[in-house]
Amino acid sequence: MKVIVIGCTHAGTFATQQILTEHPDWDVTVYERNDTLSFLSCGIALWVGGHVSDPNKMFYSNPEALTSLGATMKMQHDVLEVNSATKSVRVKDLQSGEITTDTYDKLVVTTGSAPVIPPLEGIDHPKLKLCKDWNNAKTLKDLAPEIESVIVIGAGYIGAELAEQYAVTGKEVTLIDALPRVLAKNFDSVITDRVEKDYTDHGVKLALNEKVVSFSGTDQITVTTDQSSYTADLAILAVGFRPHTELLKGQVEMLRNGAIITNEYMQSSNPDIYAAGDSSVVHYNPTGKDDYIPLATNAVRQGILVGKNIEVPTEKYLGTQATSAVCLFEKTLAASGLTVDGAEARGLQVASVTLEQDYRPDFMLTTEPILMSLTWDPETRVIKGGAFYSSYDCAQSANVISLAIQNKMTIDQLAMVDMFFQPNYDQPINYVNALAGAAVTKAAQK
Asked: Which of 52, 252, 368, 438 is the right S-S partner for 392, CB 3.0 to 4.6 Å?
C-alpha cells in the first residue's frame, strides 16, 4: 500500500506514526514544506516570556524519528497539486526547484491551518508579525529584548497569552479585538470581566469592540481602528486561523470555510482521502454537529484514528468538547463545551448557573475561591459546558466537564458523582459537585 501524507505538524506526525505502527511494511511518504515538524506553537508566548527551558524541546518528534519507523521524509517539499482522479500529486523541492509527480493508493491530508490575514491597508508592514510557526516564534523571541511597546491584535487564546507575557515582562501593551470582550469565544462575561480587570491591573490597555482598518508608520507601527489609533514598536496579528485546504478544493466536500468534512473514521467524501487536524472538521459533541475548532488535542486524536482506520474502518471518532485551559496573570482559566454566548451563536438554548466558593475548607491556613459556571440543556438537563477561574490550579476540572459532556451526563448525575474529600484538596462536597448541585437547584426553580 502506498500512502502519501501532506503536512506534518500534529495530525500528520501522529498519523504517520500510527500508520507505520499498524502497517510497518507499507510505503509511506511524507511531504512537508518546512524543515521541522511537530512544533508546539502553544508554547510561543511562554518562550517569549522566558518560561521555556530549551526551545528545541518544543518539538516532540523529528524527521529522523519518522524515518526510523519506515517513512520516506520529504522535508522542504511543497505539494502544488492533488489530482484525486489519477491519485497523483505534483511536488516542488523547495531547495532545488525540481518538480516531480508521485502517486498514492491512500492520501492523508494534514495540511493544517494558516493565519487569517485580512486585506487591510499596510498589512505587509515590516513591524507587523504573526504567531503561528517556528519561524514566527524565533522572530518574536529575538525581537522581545529590543522592544518597549507592543500591540497585540486578537484577544483569543494566542493574543491573550502574548499580551499577558509582554505585560509581565515590562512591555507597554495594547490588546485590540473587534469583539466586546477578551476571550469572548471561550468564556462568558462573568469570567471575562475578571480577566479584563487582571489585564488593566497590569497596565494593559484594552481596545475592545474596535476593528482594525490599517497599519502605517516607519520607525514604529501605528494601528488604526474604526475608533482610534495606537502606536508601538511592534504589532502582532493573531485574529484566527483558516483551513489550509486549497489543494482539495472541488475534490472533496468541505465547510464554507474550507474545512474538509470527514466521517467518523476520518474519511473525506472520497474514501481514499483522509483528513485530520486543522485542515478538517471536528464533531462537536455539545451540539452534535460538525464544527471547525483548530486545537492540537483534536489534531493528535484524529491523526491516530487515521492510522487505525486507513486500511479498514475500525475505530470511531469520539468527537470533541474543545476542552482548553490557560494561565493568565497567575490565574487559571479552564473550559469545556458551550458557553451561553457560544450556544446562542449556534442557535441553541441553554440554561446556566454561576457559583463562587473556596476550593477547600476555611479551617485550612489558606484557601482560594473558584469562580465557576455550568451550561445545560433546559429540556433534557444534559450538560453542555463548564468554565472555571481561580488563582488555584483548577485546570483539571475542565476535563471532568469534558467527560460529563462526552458521556451525556445530566446535571443531576454530575451533582452526585463520587468524588473524594481531603481537606488539602477540596470540600466535603467537591466544587464540581457543588456547581452541578447549584444547577439542579436553579433548574427546580423554573
From this structure: 368
- Which of 82, 57, 58, 101 lies closest to 7, judged by CA? 82
> What's the pLDDT tens digit per position in 20-79?
999 999 999 999 999 999 999 999 999 999 999 999 999 999 999 999 999 999 999 999
8 A C-beta contact, residue 252 and residue 273: yes
pTM of the model: 0.96
Catalytic machinery residues: 10, 42
Q: Report the SS3 class of residue 248.
A: helix
Q: What is the pLDDT confidence band of residue 152, given thresholds at 50, 70 and 90? A: very high
Cell numbers describing residue 77 = 517539499
CA distances from 174 to 149, 162, 181, 189, 229 (A): 8, 11, 14, 20, 11
Unique residue bearing C-alpha cell 475561591: 369
Per the CB < 8 A criterion, the answer to whether 179 and 188 are in contact is no
3-state secondary structure of 135: helix
* Spatial contact of 348 and 336, defined as CB atoms under 8 Å apart: no
* Residues ≥6 apart with Cβ < 8 Å to 352: 188, 340, 373, 374, 375, 376
Reported as a single tens digit per residue, the pLDDT across 313-336 is 999 999 999 999 999 999 999 999
